[in-house]
Structure formats: structure tokens, C-alpha cells
Amino acid sequence: MDDCVFCRIVRGELPASKVYEDEHTLAFLNIVAAHPGHVLVIAKPHVENLYGLDDTLAAAVFQATTRVARAVKEVTGCDGTTIFQANEVAGGQTVFHFHLHVLPRFTDDKLLPFWQASAPPREALDEMAARLRAAL
Q1: Residue numbers of the domain that contains 22
Q2: What is the DSSP code (8-state) at residue 33?
Q3: In the UniProt entry, which residues are flagged as the active site (predicted)?
Q4: Is 99 a catalytic residue?
């Protein structure tokens, strides 16, 4: 879709602090992060939500998410991770392009069910992206 923000990131029209990329997926730091290291893993083709994924793309996204989650844990030193994915407005979906959140979690961080967003400067995002790339 021409106006989809994630499609525009895939096409290189918008900047992103990339963490991982393969044929089917792209992972980048969330610009509205819960904690440093909060990564979004997306399907490269435009698929609105979980329901539209075929088996190959679903497998690719979850394999990428697993790799990214390991890197997030290693780099951030978090106590755990939450993998979050929402479908449709009622499910909390706000960007209608399939994606998963990889949230670094810390004991008693009180993030969920909602988190306080921050907007770190691009330099901080790029630095974290480099550290995560190195861990992969």
C-alpha cells in the first residue's frame, strides 16, 4: 500500500533503525518505545494482520522474532521479554500492517497492559540498532 508507514519503511522512503532483515521480514527499533531495545518485527509484504499471513510468512516472522528476542535479552540485560501482537481496532491494532512487538521487560516495570511511550533521539535509536545487529 502506498500510504502504509511500514510499507514506506520497507521501500526505504522513511528512516528506521534496522536491527534485522531477511527476504520476508524487517525488524527495527520502535520510535515510540516502552524501553530501549523495543523492536518491531514486520512482514515485508503488506499483510493487514495475523489472519492474512500464509504459513511461509508466518514462520518467517516468528523465526525472526525469536532471533531478535534473544538479541534484545542479551543486549539490554532485561529480566524477560513480552512478545505483543494486536489485530484489528478492538484488539488494539493501530498500524494496519502485521507486526510483533519485542518488549524487553524488567521485574516490576509495570508496563502492561499499557506502557509509557518515549521518543528517543535518532542517535540513541541507531546506537541500540547497531548493538542489536552485532548480537545477531
Answers
A1: 5-128
A2: B
A3: 99 (tele-amp-histidine intermediate)
A4: yes
How many Å apart are CA 121 and CA 103, to the nearest integer? Answer: 19
Domain for residue 135, yes or no?
no
The CATH number given to whatever domain includes residue 55 is 3.30.428.10
Which amino acid is it at 49? N
Cell numbers representing residue 6 in the block: 511500514
35, 38, 97, 99: the catalytic one is 99
- 49-95 pLDDT, tens digit per residue, is 999 999 999 999 999 999 999 999 999 999 999 999 999 999 999 99
Contact 42, 26 (CB under 8 A): yes
Give the chain's domain count: 1
Question: Do the domain assignments include residue 75?
Answer: yes
pLDDT of 113 > 90? The answer is no
CA dist., res. 6 & res. 109, Å (int): 28
Whether 82 contacts 113, CB under 8 Å: no
